[in-house]
Design brief:
The chain is mainly β. It has one domain: Porin, CATH 2.40.160. Helix content is 9%, strand content 48%. The protein contains four helices and 20 strands. The chain has helices at residues 16-34, 166-169, 182-187, 370-379, and strands at 51-55, 59-63, 69-85, 98-114, 116-126, 140-147, 154-161, 191-199, 209-216, 231-239, 260-273, 289-302, 305-316, 320-324, 330-334, 338-350, 353-364, 381-390, 396-406, 414-424. Strand 16 and strand 17 form a beta hairpin. The longest helix is centred in the N-terminal third of the chain and has 19 residues, at 16-34.
Length: 425
């Protein structure tokens, strides 16, 4: 019986896999056919992306799409060359000048908000050798949260400037002369760990009143040594009778068209501090001191002219401190009580060129640390001058400054001349 030839492809019967594929194609095409003549649905919107922006001197800022998080990263360096001419070692001798060129400061800033724009944060790291003061081993300068939900009672908590006097709370990058005022370096309160309530416009945006009210540990920044329990309490009030002003920067770079005035007064009490200067300087080994601090300050600006002035004091409850060390040995240590003042005028000469000056005086209280008395007798007066070129305000500037300190005789004064390049990026 003859064998039948296999069917050709054209004559091949349907098989189930091919049939299933046809059914699937028909089902997929059905919705398209049903919607013929209707517009296709719009694609789902993509989620909004985070935004990034930057500007010279203000760093790079990234903000989340929902606006509930942001981070600004910026840095700052200050390059400094200083020629110093200290007084002769012996009376009638010659001065021996010295020169030093260094990275005077290097800072890293991280600022922004988290969860909402009313929960702000600041972290500042200082990493140059000159930034490690009083034996500290940590680069942390600022580390705090700022809760601004209530403009009449905002809360700042962390390691921060103690809101005591105006001159000290002006940031380092906004100074007119190479160094802070000698009176401020000696008598002011530095950073500390604590919290304070504040308002820049108590009662409304047009208010001329401001206040700060806080409590701190009293041991200064980056405290690493335990001490007898105590507390630093501070209260400050401010008045701006001619309206709001930028009193947190020295000088009047923007040539304020109308006169502006800020007045401030503060009081603080540091109970059981283990620092000779209240929140800075050496640490006591067997004692603590109680200090009362008082300050009053003013800032005036108009058409490129500016004046910063301040008077302040630090008074110990007891200047002679007697205690026992861990072995029971008697230890005598001394507090540093004194007062002082300074004035600092300045004027813009041309568009970006400024001339600034300074004069101040520091006094030691009777019966206080003899080393402090000797220091004031030798260098209690201070004078200085500076010529500044501002390329981008205080965020990019070149400064040339001269400073001198003297006591009873100007011939034994300590002189120094400095050239600085200060850049924030």
């Amino acid at each position: 019986m003859p064998r039948t030839a296999p069917p050709s492809p054209a004559q091949a019967p349907f098989r189930w896999p091919s049939l299933a594929a046809a059914v699937a194609l028909a089902l997929c095409a059905a919705p398209a056919a049903a919607s013929a003549g209707e517009p296709a649905p719009a694609p789902a919107p993509r989620p909004a992306a985070a935004t990034a922006e930057g500007a010279p001197g203000k760093g790079l800022r990234v903000t989340s799409a929902d606006g509930n998080f942001s981070m600004n990263l910026r840095g700052r360096i200050q390059l400094r060359s200083q020629l110093a001419a200290p007084p002769p070692v012996e009376e009638g001798g010659e001065r021996e000048p010295t020169l030093i060129a260094k990275v005077n400061t290097a800072r890293i800033f991280m600022t922004g908000h988290t969860l909402s724009p009313d929960v702000q944060y600041v972290v500042q790291l200082a990493v140059a050798p000159n930034d490690y003061r009083d034996g500290t081993i940590s680069p942390v300068y600022d580390a705090y949260l700022d809760l601004t939900h209530n403009p009449n009672a905002s809360l700042r908590v962390g390691q921060i400037f103690v809101p005591f006097d105006r001159a000290r709370t002006i940031r380092e990058f906004a100074l007119q002369l190479p160094d802070r005022q000698r009176v401020v370096s000696e008598l002011s309160l530095d950073r500390d760990l604590g919290a304070y309530l504040y308002s820049d416009h108590l009662g409304g945006d047009s208010s001329i009143f401001a206040y700060r009210l806080g409590v701190f540990g009293g041991g200064g920044p980056n405290a690493a040594v335990a001490k007898e329990p105590g507390m630093l309490s501070v209260a400050r009030v401010e008045l701006r009778p001619l309206g709001a002003m930028d009193d947190d920067q020295e000088g009047d770079l923007t040539r304020t068209p109308s006169p502006r005035l800020a007045l401030g007064a503060a009081a603080a009490y540091n109970l059981n501090t283990n620092r000779a200067r209240s929140t800075t300087s050496t640490t006591y080994t067997a004692n603590t001191a109680d200090y009362t601090h008082l300050a009053a300050d003013l800032v005036f600006k108009w058409r490129g002219a500016a004046l910063l002035g301040q008077v302040m004091s630090r008074s110990a409850a007891e200047d002679k401190l007697v205690g026992e060390d861990a072995e029971g040995a008697k230890v005598t240590e001394w507090a540093r009580s004194g007062w002082g003042w300074f004035v600092q005028p300045s004027t813009m000469l041309v568009k970006d060129l400024e001339l600034a000056g300074r004069y101040g005086q520091l006094q030691a209280a009777e019966g206080t640390d003899q080393a402090f008395v000797d220091e004031v007798e030798a260098f209690g007066h201070e004078a200085g001058a500076g010529l500044n070129w501002y390329e981008n305000g205080h965020r990019f500037k070149v400064q040339a400054g001269w400073a001198t300190r003297w006591g009873e005789e100007f011939s034994a004064a300590d002189h120094s001349a400095s050239l600085l390049v200060d850049v924030m990026f």
